[in-house]
Design goal:
This protein has about 375 residues and is α+β, with helices and mostly antiparallel strands. The chain is built from eight helices and 17 strands. A hairpin with a 2-residue loop joins β16 and β17.
Amino acid sequence: MPQKVTVTVIKADVGGYVGHSSVHPRLIDKARETLDKRGSNLLIDSYVATVGDDINLIMTHRNGVDCPAIHELAWDTFLACTAVAKELKLYGAGQDLLSDAFSGNVKGMGPGVAEMEFVERQAEPIIVFMADKTEPGAWNYPLYKMFADPFTTIGLVIDPKMHSGFKFEVHDLIGHKKVVFGCPEEVYDMLVFIGAPGRYCIKSVYSKTLGEICATSTTQRLNLMAGRYIGKDDPSMIVRCQSGMPAVGEALEAFANPHLVAGWMRGSNNGPLMPVAMEDATPTRFDGPPRAVALGFQLCNGNLVGPRDMFADKSFDKARQIANDIAQYIRGLGPFEPGRLPLDEMEYTTLPDVMKRLADRFEDVD
Ligand code: F6R
Ligand code: MG
Ligand code: MG
């Protein structure tokens, strides 16, 4: 049996600098230092990336998915970063670490997890996409475009290794169920669900021809709190590329026409997902607009050769311009939908209080 490699991305926001706009350099140093020191016997390689106020730990190893030691390493790294964030009194220090004690797996404890295990191919290009100020369902549209839309991915039409299509595992984050759709034959059924990204998220994609995993994303389940589902969590995903999977350029093309995602200010507004270079991954205007970055790596026996900052390319200038135009327009709507999210999807609300205060003033309509 050929040896397998696991790529694990675990992400959390453990303190923003300034406000929710970026990560302080000392936290990045602390994360690198902790992974190097504590991970020396566990990891093959690692890279610490940030998008907005989120730290993404990109790790490669031989321990498979859901490995307690790897999850604990990530947890301890975030704890070490939290200590620095507290020392600097950064904003929301430790906010994504929802528990005091680690219990074997970071799932459900706050951080987001995307990981996949596979046999490294002769050449193995991967892209780690990371977003801030949005939710896991934000990947539904680009994943659909990469793996099911022939207008984005011409390989679906003309590459014999892609022509029979892909399988999509879709999670219902509220019903806690999952279902697999074969595409293209079930595209219309699948779109009924993934077109509602606040509830249904594409977790993973598999090649029918190669029988291999091609993509996986962070999809935390939503929490029912105070009668509402909350838990917008800035998402990440790993996409394998080329040789029967979308070409690097096909995967990136899915971001050329910025789509509207839920999140932005107070997790309660719609905004365009702007593809940006790492140095521009600092959501500022109205705490946004939401950002996506893409780091490309060639795997070499599990080592991360890279990264290349894929959205730094000039060919994405137009997409950024469109995103800024959309942002300008939609901000003009202020507190009106669809600028603001529908009542049941907002992360912040004053409705119950206002309703209570005005209860006596509401009269029956004849
Ligand atoms: C969105 C986000 C920010 C905050 C906003 C208010 O995901 O993190 O837009 O919601 O800055 O933050 P607080 O309530 O902490 O003042
Ligand atoms: Mg934040
Ligand atoms: Mg964030």
